[in-house]
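re: the backbone from monday

yeah here it is again, tokenized this time
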């Protein structure tokens, strides 16, 4: 039911497949999700953060509310380090870059997000090219903030949308038939032992 990479008495680290909800949506047809499956396995489960339906990779699940509360604090204080891998359209120029463009919901085209300097919330993404593949670029993406669709909108704003993105790529089909975005690495202080822990999920594309 779940691809569990780590489990203890407080939390679970799961490798989420693409095209799977993080938490249940509205309606019986949207109940199946990582949290719903975790509830079936552990009796109690709470989302610490979320990944988009189309995104694969590491997701953290708390087994009780105290764990969720402590992890929320780490996310709020930006102690959690996350790295994503993606393949973006075209060959990006530069050895490193940072996108700082505020985001808000595009209400007329929900769930799409949009850049808005007047009403948007601060959003920061760091990018580093790793290799060039068939005219496209494999990149490491590090979100400093955690806005909805942040990596997807920021890459599109540079003229390099993530391949397979049904919302932001003008050619949303790929050989893999999925969004080529994967939550590859996460590091944080364990909420109860205070040890610095690191988890990695191999990239499936």
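seq for it, each position gets an aa:
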């Amino acid at each position: 039911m779940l691809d569990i990479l780590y489990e203890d008495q407080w939390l679970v680290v799961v490798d989420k497949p693409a095209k799977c909800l993080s938490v249940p949506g509205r309606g019986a047809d949207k109940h199946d999700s990582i949290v719903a499956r975790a509830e079936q396995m552990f009796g109690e489960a709470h989302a610490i953060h979320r990944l988009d339906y189309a995104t694969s990779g590491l997701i953290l699940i708390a087994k009780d509310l105290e764990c969720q509360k402590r992890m929320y604090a780490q996310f709020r204080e930006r102690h959690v380090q996350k790295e994503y891998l993606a393949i973006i359209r075209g060959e990006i120029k530069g050895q490193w870059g940072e996108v700082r463009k505020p985001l808000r919901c595009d209400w007329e085209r929900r769930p799409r997000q949009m850049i808005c300097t007047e009403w948007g919330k601060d959003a920061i993404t760091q990018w580093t090219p790793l290799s060039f593949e068939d005219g496209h670029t494999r990149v490491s993406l590090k979100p400093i903030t955690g806005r909805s669709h942040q990596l997807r909108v920021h890459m599109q704003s540079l003229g390099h949308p993530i391949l397979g993105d049904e919302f932001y790529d003008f050619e949303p089909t790929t050989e893999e038939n999925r969004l080529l975005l994967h939550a590859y690495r996460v590091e944080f202080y364990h909420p109860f032992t205070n040890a610095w822990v690191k988890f990695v999920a191999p990239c499936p594309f």
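The longest strand covers residues 124-133. The mean pLDDT is 96.
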